[in-house]
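Give me structure tokens for this 116-residue protein.
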Amino acid sequence: MNTEKVLEILRAIGNFTEDEVKKYSSLVEINKRPFAENEYDESDEALLEYFVATKTNYQIALASGDSEISSFKAGDVSITSSTNGNAVKNAKALLDDACASISHLVADKSFYFREV
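Here you go.
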């Protein structure tokens, strides 16, 4: 899985600058770890990169809180609002979508006998 592609997706969905997204590269590496042992084809790898980016974005949203105001200036009053106060909710919706996309990769396909 390509970390740069994950960071590029994270930058797009999280509306981060390039410098901001670099701060989260270690979190991306941690979120990639469960998938490191397996080989995936190109399309599954792209789905996993999207999943890791959305998971990281959700973790960032949880840590950052969900305030409506993202910046405020006192001189010549300027208020910038973020995602209408739903940053965590929006990040969770993206994560749910990504989870659905990779469900075929993480499904439990094993079985066991309860009784004979």
